[in-house]
Design brief:
alpha+beta; four-stranded antiparallel sheet; 20 helices; globular; about 65% helix
Length: about 675
C-alpha cells in the first residue's frame, strides 16, 4: 500500500506543478500579489510531495520489496545497506527520481531564500522551474515509472550492477545532479528576466550564488566520477573522453564562463545579452547530457540502455526548452541595452577572453561528442572520436587560458595596465619555470614540452598567491598593515584564489602523470618481483575470500625500497547473483604519487597477468578539484553573495513617497 501512496504523491506533485506553471505567471502579468504568493508556498509543497515519493522508493529498496519491479531489477537481499540506498539512483528510473528531487529542492530553496527578489521576478522564476518539473514528472510517469508492481512478487532480486556497488557511486550521482540541476535556477532566472524584459546588475547579483553553488557541486561530481573510474574499473585511467563524461564536462565549461560573465555584469552592468545566453546554454547542455545518457543512443558504463520512447520523449523536452528559450532570447535580445563600456585591456577584457576560450573549448568537446552520432544517423557509418582529437583541440585552447587566468585579477576594472600586471608576474613565471625544471630533473628527464606544461600549472598556483600578495600590499606597507589588509580581504577574493590555485594543481597533476607515468604488463608467479617507480613489487600469491554477496581471489604484493614499505591487495571478484566478474585495483599512495596494480587473467602454468603502473603526482588532479570546490564554498560564504541585491522599492512605497513630497 505504501508504494501506491508514493505513486499517488508523485501524481499530486504533477498537479501542484501544473498550478505553479500557470498561476504565478498570470499573477505577475496582472500584478496580483495573492496569485504570485502561490509560487512560494506551492514550491515548498511540491518539494515535500516529491521528497515523500522519493522516500517511499528508498524504503522499498531498503526492505528489499521485490514486488516493485525497480527493486527487483536493481537490488538483492544480500546487497550491503549502503548500496541498497545508492542502488536507487544506480538505474534509469531511480536516477530520474533523484533528478526530480533535486529540481524540487532548488525550487524550494529559491522560494525560501529569495526574499530580496522582486515579487514578479520570483514568481516567474518559480513558474519556469515548475515548467521543467512538469516535463520531467510526465517523463517519469509515462515512460519511466519506478512504482510498477510485479505479481506474483519474485523471491529474490537480480542484483545491482557490480561496478555500481561502490562508495564512489553512492556519492558521485547526487553531486553531479546538484550541479546539473542547479543550473536550472540560472536558466529560470534568464527566462523570467526575458519575460519581463528587464535585466540589470541586480539580476546578475541574484544569479551568481546559484551559478556558483551549481558549479561547485558539478566540480565535485566530475572529480568523484573520475576517481571512481580510476580505481574501480581497473584500467588505470582517470579520463577517457567518453561521451557521457563529456556530457558533464560541457556544462562545467559553460558554467565557468557564466560565473565570470555574471561577475562582469554585476560590476560593470556589461555583457547582459551574453550572460543571459550563457545561462540558457549551460542548462541546455545539462539537458543534452541527460538525453545522451538516458536515451540509449550511447553505450557506456555510465549510460542506461532504454527503450526508444524515452529517447523520443527527452528529445521533445530538448526541443521545447532549448528551442523555446532560444526563440524567446532571439525575440527579446534586440530590446536589451548593451550595458557599460570598458577598454580591451582591463579586468573585464580578461574575463571576456576567458569566456571566449571556454565557450570555444566547450564547442570542440560538443563537436567531438555529437559528430559520430550525427554521422551514424545520416550515413549509417560508425566512427569514434578518441582522445587524440580532444587532447589536440582542447589542450591547445587551454594554453592561452593558463596565461590569462593569473593576469586577469591583477588588472583594474574598466581600464587596466597590462605591463604593470605582467611586471608583478615576472618573478612568478621565473619561479614556476625553475620549479618545472626541478621536477623534470627529479623524474630523470622528459620531453621538452613537459617543462612548459609543468611551469603552466605552477604559474597558475603561484599566480593565485601573487594576487593575494598584491592585494595585501606586501612589500609596500609594514608587515602589520599588510596582515590587516590580508585579513580584511573579502572572502570572494580567497575563493577566487583557491579556485585558480586548484586549477593549477589539476594541470600540474595531468601534465606530470601523462609525462612520467610508467606501465608494465607481465605474467607473474608467486615469489617473482617487478620494478616500478623505484619500488620493488613482489607477488606473494592469491588468497580466496568471501564477501557478503561475492567471492574473490585476492593477490598480495609486498612493496619495498630497501626495507618493506607497504603492501598492496588486488582482486578478481565474482558476484553471486549475476556471476559478473570485476577487477578491484590495488593502490598504494606515496605522497602525491601512486603505485597501481591490477590483476588480469590466470595463465596455464600457474601464473597470472599483472598490470603495474607508477603514476607520479596523479593525486594532484583530484586534490586540485577539491581546492577548486573549496574556493566555491568560500566564495558562497561571502556576505555580499549571501545577502544578495537589495529589494527594489514596491510601487506602493514609491507612491507614498510622492504623496509626502506633494504634501510638503
Amino acid at each position: 500500500m505504501i508504494i501506491e501512496i508514493g505513486h499517488y504523491a508523485l501524481v499530486l506533485a504533477l498537479a501542484t506543478a501544473l498550478v505553479l506553471s500557470v498561476v504565478p505567471v498570470v499573477g505577475a502579468r496582472l500584478h496580483d500579489c495573492r496569485m504570485m504568493e502561490v509560487a512560494t508556498l506551492g514550491s515548498v509543497v511540491f518539494f515535500l510531495l516529491v521528497a515523500f515519493s522519493f522516500g517511499v522508493l528508498v524504503y522499498a529498496h531498503v526492505v528489499s520489496d521485490f514486488s516493485v519491479e525497480n527493486v527487483w531489477e536493481h537490488s538483492h537481499s544480500l546487497v550491503p545497506l549502503l548500496y541498497k540506498y545508492s542502488g536507487l539512483w544506480g538505474n534509469h528510473e531511480g536516477s530520474m527520481m533523484l533528478w526530480l528531487l533535486i529540481l524540487a529542492l532548488f525550487s524550494a530553496l529559491v522560494a525560501m531564500f529569495g526574499r530580496n527578489l522582486p515579487e514578479t521576478l520570483k514568481a516567474n522564476v518559480l513558474a519556469v522551474q515548475a515548467w521543467t518539473s512538469v516535463a520531467f514528472i510526465l517523463f517519469i510517469l509515462l515512460t519511466s515509472n519506478p512504482f510498477m508492481r510485479l505479481d506474483p512478487a519474485p523471491a529474490e532480486g537480480k542484483d545491482l550492477n557490480p561496478v555500481l556497488q561502490d562508495v564512489g557511486l553512492a556519492i558521485h550521482p547526487p553531486l553531479l545532479y546538484l550541479g546539473y540541476v542547479g543550473f536550472s535556477v540560472c536558466f529560470s532566472f534568464a527566462i523570467a528576466a526575458l519575460l519581463e524584459g528587464r535585466i540589470d546588475a541586480a539580476w546578475a547579483r541574484w544569479v551568481r550564488p546559484w551559478a556558483l553553488a551549481a558549479w561547485t557541486f558539478l566540480t565535485l561530481g566530475i572529480a568523484m566520477g573520475s576517481y571512481w573510474a580510476y580505481y574501480e574499473l581497473g584500467w588505470g585511467g582517470w579520463w577517457f573522453w567518453d561521451p557521457v563524461e563529456n556530457s558533464s564536462f560541457m556544462p562545467w565549461l559553460a558554467g565557468t564562463a557564466l560565473l565570470h560573465s555574471a561577475l562582469v555584469m554585476e560590476k560593470r552592468e556589461a555583457l547582459k545579452i551574453w550572460t543571459v545566453l550563457l545561462a540558457i546554454l549551460t542548462f541546455s547542455l545539462s539537458l543534452l547530457g541527460t538525453f545522451l545518457v538516458r536515451s540509449g543512443v550511447l553505450t557506456s558504463v555510465h549510460a542506461f540502455a532504454s527503450d526508444p520512447s524515452r529517447g523520443i520523449f527527452i528529445l521533445c523536452i530538448l526541443f521545447v526548452f532549448i528551442g523555446g528559450s532560444l526563440s524567446l532570447f532571439a525575440y527579446r535580445a534586440p530590446t536589451l541595452t548593451a550595458g557599460g563600456l570598458f577598454a580591451p585591456i582591463s579586468r573585464e577584457g580578461a574575463l571576456v577572453l576567458n569566456n571566449l576560450i571556454l565557450t570555444v573549448a566547450c564547442g570542440t568537446v560538443l563537436t567531438g561528442t555529437l559528430y559520430p552520432l550525427l554521422l551514424e544517423t545520416i550515413t549509417g557509418d560508425k566512427i569514434s572520436v578518441g582522445a587524440p582529437f580532444f587532447n589536440m583541440t582542447f589542450g591547445t585552447l587551454m594554453i592561452p587560458l593558463v596565461f590569462v587566468v593569473p593576469v586577469g585579477p591583477l588588472l583594474a576594472w574598466k581600464r587596466g595596465d597590462l605591463l604593470g600586471a605582467l611586471q608583478r608576474l615576472y618573478a612568478v613565471a621565473g619561479i614556476a619555470f625553475v620549479g618545472a625544471l626541478a621536477i623534470v630533473y627529479v623524474q630523470h628527464g622528459g620531453p621538452v614540452l613537459s617543462v612548459f606544461g609543468l611551469a603552466g600549472g605552477l604559474y597558475l598556483v603561484l599566480g593565485a598567491l601573487a594576487d593575494l600578495w598584491c592585494r595585501s600590499g606586501v612589500g609596500k606597507v609594514s608587515a602589520y598593515v599588510a596582515w590587516r589588509r590580508f585579513c580584511g580581504l573579502p572572502r570572494s577574493a580567497f575563493g577566487t584564489g583557491l579556485a585558480h590555485a586548484g586549477l593549477g594543481l589539476t594541470v600540474l597533476g595531468i601534465v606530470a602523470v601523462t609525462t612520467f607515468e610508467t606501465e608494465r604488463v607481465l605474467e607473474m608467479k608467486p615469489g617473482e618481483t617487478v620494478e616500478a617507480g623505484g619500488y620493488s613489487l613482489r607477488f606473494d600469491g592469491l588468497k580466496p575470500e568471501r564477501g557478503s554477496n561475492y567471492t574473490e581471489d585476492r593477490g598480495h604484493f609486498s612493496v619495498s625500497r630497501g626495507d618493506d614499505v607497504g603492501e598492496v591487495w588486488s582482486a578478481k571478484r565474482v558476484y553471486s547473483a549475476g556471476k559478473m566478474p570485476t577487477t578491484e585495483a590495488g593502490i598504494l599512495t606515496f605522497g602525491p604519487s601512486q603505485l597501481y596494480v591490477s590483476l588480469g587473467d590466470p595463465t596455464n602454468d600457474g601464473g597470472i597477468v599483472v598490470r603495474v603502473w607508477w603514476k607520479p603526482f596523479i593525486t594532484l588532479i583530484w586534490l586540485g578539484a577539491l581546492v577548486m570546490a573549496a574556493g566555491g564554498f568560500v566564495s558562497l560564504s561571502d556576505r555580499r553573495l549571501r545577502v544578495g541585491a537589495p529589494r527594489r522599492k514596491t510601487r506602493a512605497i514609491v507612491k507614498l513617497a510622492h504623496i509626502a513630497e506633494a504634501a510638503e
